[in-house]
Amino acid sequence: MLSLGYTQCHMVDPIKKILKGCLHNNKLDQYQLYARYSKRMFGICLRYATNHEEAQDILQEGFIRVFQKLPSYKGKGSFEGWIKKIFVHTAIEKYRERVYHLSVDEVINDYGVDAHQNHGPAMLHTRDILNFVQRLPIQYRLVFNLYALEGYNHKEIAEILDISESTSRSNLTRARMILKNKLDVELKAVVRAV
Question: How far apart (Å, rounded) are the C-alpha atoms in residues 129 and 138?
Fold first, then answer.
């Protein structure tokens, strides 16, 4: 009978096996990596995208970059943390491409609450809050996501987005103010519906 210690010592970490296969362009291992991380990474993509289709584009582009950059992964730290950074940077680059092609009026657009949303008698759902975040002007959404959800500080955000720290702080303040106002309006509508 094998002892537990012997079994644990000789077990192969499944992610290491998958990564090794991906490095050798094994399609099955690439699919397994995608299947293992796509849902979590799609959640990140949704936070940065303006809609579901854009999030899908970021997801696809993010995985392409993961496979391209995989040889540079040294195995230090968690693989999920490493892949998450790639997706955040992919989303930010998508933002930069968009801003380059949009006019100022298109970037700072109407971000009011959709009057056609279905309000149930219960509390707000996560998807409602995500919808509010997605409707923030893009520069506010990026700073909000990086600060509140990804844990970056204002100095790091300033470097990533090539803005000043004070701009990062003011964008976060404005994002929070817009979200608070939207939530207040939405909660009042829910209370009236009950």
Answer: 16
Closest CA to 148 of 128, 131, 125, 171: 171
* Amino acid letter, residue 36: R
* Phi and psi angles of residue 146, each rounded to the nearest 5 degrees, phi first: -65, -40
**Per-residue pLDDT in tens (0 to 9) along the chain, 194 residues:** 333 344 444 445 788 899 999 999 999 999 999 999 999 999 999 988 888 999 999 999 999 999 999 999 988 888 999 999 999 999 888 876 654 443 333 333 333 333 334 444 345 566 777 788 888 998 899 999 898 888 889 999 999 898 999 999 999 999 999 988 887 787 777 666 65
pTM score: 0.59
Residue identified by tokens 């204002």 is 154
Is 29 in contact with 22 (CB distance < 8 Å)? yes
SS3 content of the chain, % helix, strand, coil (to 5): 75, 0, 25
Among residues 165, 39, 143, which one has the least CA distance to residue 91? Answer: 143
Angstrom distance (rounded) from CA 132 to CA 180 = 10
| Sign of the C-alpha dihedral computed for residues 50, 114, 106 and 152 taken in this order | negative
State how far the Cα of 106 lies from the Cα of 101, in Å rounded to an integer: 10
